[in-house]
Amino acid sequence: MKSVARISLLILHLIGPLAFGQVTEPAPGDPIDQVEVVGNKSVAPDTIRVYLGLNPGDPYDPAAIRRNFLNLWQTGLFDDIKIEAEKTAQGVLVRVTVSERPRIGAVEFRGNKNLNLTKINEALDRGSINLHVGSTIEQTLVKRAAETIREAYAEAGFEGVTVTTTSEEMVDPNDRRIIFNITEGIKAKIADIEFVGNETFSDRRLRREMKEVKEHNLITWARKKNVYIPSKLDEDLERVRNFYLDRGYKDITFGDAQIETTRKERVRITIPINEGAVHQFGKVTVAGNTVFTEEQLIGNWPTQSGETLSRKPVQARLELFEEAYQRRGYIYAYINSQYVENQEGIVDVHLQVFEGDQFR
Known about the structure:
Layout: E1 4-9, E2 32-38, H1 45-52, H2 62-73, E3 78-88, E4 91-100, E5 103-110, H3 117-126, H4 139-155, E6 158-159, E7 162-169, E8 175-183, E9 186-187, E10 189-196, H5 203-208, H6 218-222, H7 230-245, E11 253-254, E12 258-263, E13 266-274, E14 280-287, H8 294-298, H9 311-327, E15 334-343, E16 346-354
Helix pairs in contact: 3-4
């Protein structure tokens, strides 16, 4: 009876040692007599052989096969690969058994009434997600596609959207129809916007800073501001953050917004907030400047030591600096501002100038 030496390289043990048979093994250096490929349907045997570096007449080299295995695995064409080596009278028979990864035979979306196929495909394109017919199925890519579709619905104002995936066999046994099952949820009109943790400013005052996401009423409905859209809420929270920064609250932070369905097609948005403490301005320093002097850049600074630290005058001054650099031909110049708390409640502003090259 022939003795068989096996190389079993399974999905969960890709970089483990090669496991050989019990009695005799093909000796390293014996000539490869034949390379046999089993289980392939669409991938040519020569393609598999080339990736593994197996050529009849070459010396049998288990270490090289182990290294080349990863080259074949990383093509993403297979779910499983097994390599066996069998000693024969003529040399070594290497048998490669593969299980090909199914291909995408078709893609179908079910349940999408409010978001048409064009808009779904546009969202997938923006996410660089390609579900081309004929390509192998990658489950991570399918999951990304489902999440991208859900996010597209959220950006259109839908809450409670679910996107699940299934697959169906097709005429070709190696093809699968990928199906995205969409439950569209509700068009989420905003019943309430509440802040939790704010002590200095009321909910009403903070809501005044929000421009894109408003509680539902006739005016906000007419202006299309009454629907919960995550990216618009992020923009508005940045406005609220700047409101606090302009009043000395350097450490203002927000928690994740909590979205609760209150009744049919209505949601309540609850936003945790940590105001922190008011900070005073200490001093301003600058580094990296060669075109303008320190006096030109920070002389007559708009905020005096001991006054409340405010973002707005600092930002206005930085924009003025960058405009001055551009007029001198330094079109890529920019300035970073760093806030350094040198003692409790007192913050210094350090400006780092990056001038770049001058263009005339």
